Amino acid sequence: MNRTARLYALMEELRAVAPRPLTVAVLAARFEVSTRTVQRDLQVLMETGVPVRTTPGRGGGWSIDPAMNLPPIHFTAEEASALVVALAATDSLAPYAGAARTAAQKVAASMTGPASVAAQELADRIVALPRPSDSLIRAAVERALTTNTVLRLSYTDATGRESDCLVEPAGLLTADGRWYLIAWCRTRLAGRGFRLDRITTATQTTEQALPHDLTELLRGSAAAGAVQPSTLAPLVPLVSLAVRH
User: Fold this and answer.
1) Which three-class secondary structure string do you get for 118-168?
2) What is the pLDDT of residues 62-98, one digit of tens each?
3) Sequence-separated (6 or more) residues with CB below 8 Å from residue 69
4) Taking the model in full, what pTM does it have?
5) In angstroms, rounded to a whole number, what is the distance separating the alpha carbons of residues 41 and 4?
6) pLDDT tens-digit profile of 148-180?
7) By the 8 A CB rule, do 214 and 182 touch?
8) What residues form DSSP beta bridges with 192?
9) Angle formed by the axes of helices 3-17 and 35-47, to 10°?
């Protein structure tokens, strides 16, 4: 069994008994490899974002959080190739771009044979010119949206005027290749759009934000007619786009 197949099998083994932990010795015997190899494999899974964790002491071991992990999904070779290419081509400035890249790696790692080669060859034929971005700001916005917490922003508007404000995130808007944070501004007491590349600092607070209807905040603005991408619309209602990851 090669390493890619073993990593996938390790996840399946942990998922099958979750949340009960398994020791490294048990996993090593199961896959007929050394305990050192299993330790390295588990570390790789952690580094790629798989929700595996270790519990020390008697009765401890390695486990996977079933609430944070998707069950197996079976894609056709064409579907898997489309996912790898689409995720790999995600704009580095887009929210959750880092998660998209690791997702592409996981999908690619689960593929074998001609399908894997075809997907990689197709991905290699797609290139993009990177744009300047601030990963710390993007990460703060992502976390605030995921946890629905208040953000402290420093922002430079189109006229060059700088301002500081506390905002309650409601959602994300993409238009003309740019991304906007749609939020309730506590300074203006109104909904407002903040272009991500004009946010100079973003600090997540521990305060929970009040829920806001994304459609209502966009009403009366230039983006009043905004709709979800067709690939997302059947999955979740528009108002939940902002607060769920």
Assistant:
1) HHHHHHHCCCCCCCCCCHHHHHHHHHHHHHCEEEEEEEECCCCCEEEEEEE
2) 888 766 555 566 667 677 767 776 776 666 666 677 7
3) 11, 15, 18, 50, 51
4) 0.52
5) 10
6) 999 999 999 989 999 999 999 998 888 887 889
7) yes
8) 183
9) 80
